Amino acid sequence: MIGGRRMMICIAMASAVVSCGGEREQQACRMEKEAVLALIEGAPNTLTMSRISSGDLVVAWSSGWKTWFVRIDEDGARKGEARMLERYSAPPLMHDAVEDGGVKTFWPAVEGTSFRAEHLDSCSFKEGGVALGILERPNGGRAGGAHVAVIRGEDEQVEIVRVGAAGVFASSISLVASGKKLVVAWHEGDPESSRIGLASVDLETLAVTGVKNLPVEGASAGPSLAANGGKVLISWIEIVRSEKESVARVRVAMLGDDLQIDNLNTVAECRFLDCTPAVTVVGERFGISYRDDADDDGKPEFYFRMIDPAGNPTDSPARISRADGFQGPLITYGDPLVFSAAIRSFQRNFLVGLNRFDLKGVKKGGEFQIYADKSDFIRVAMDARGNRVILVYGEDRQGSGRILYGKINCRKR
To answer: Quick one: which of 10, 72, 27, 34 has its CA closest to 408?
Structure first.
């Protein structure tokens, strides 16, 4: 265990035995390894992780006014030091043309050249690199905006391009690689409107080849993208207002090469407005998770539903677990099961909740939880392969924080 009192428990019981659906069963998952990736100043604003073609993982996070990334192997060992991501390099050394050996002048390094990211997302691409989506709100002298950073090669060369504007209420960004391009979607969060921006970026040159807004009426937010076999699925929230109450409509559609939407569908209408939909590739199909308070008990829970290759929702939504923390549920396909990770509350703490379920949303084993009784885990990212899942989670330690790595093994079921 790493510092403080760490607890790995199952839902509703501080032991390895859980009660699920009236049956008592042994917890099927265990923590194999935990490691500290970084000590940070303050709590993390946001956190993301992607696996590259070599099998290594790239982890990125933002805290304070800086965004960092580090490359790790599957056992959580860092492959080099964490690097701060800068939007541009400091100007080169500039010398006065003097003949008498007088004082030479130079441009000093610019302060505040990193990003205070409101949200990060990442994806890998075939050439072996990782693309990082960075959403920054304007603040002071910072214009903010939606940016894409591409990190390539063993020497981690970084290129950054700004793809669009973001306002003071901008909240999230998503990106995927599809063929030789990146597709980016972000919540613009302008004070006068709540729109979703779309952009396509050439992976080789980083040229922005298309920009437009998602053609929806009213307020929209929470974009999430997934790409499979040349098809790109987008999900988002539309806030529908009425005289009695407002609802968040979870929508999905396919995105064409020209960023036009096709086959628009509604997945759910949620009482919980911050329903944070997340889509992922599940075999030949897609899956979606979202938050809702469907039973009207004041506590948001999260639901899962499958989507066919054409973008049509299938089956009925399946309730998985509570999701009342800082971050809504993420999902990823481990084959044959879907893994989910969410931040939720337990005994006045915020913790990481990990679940496994089949393609119909039937849970396999109890919820595996990670928490410490003297701090809160408030951000999480995930990668799953078979019955093994890697979690990276961000900790709030009341004025400081840590980025932690955990490898978890689960029994086959």
So the answer is: 34
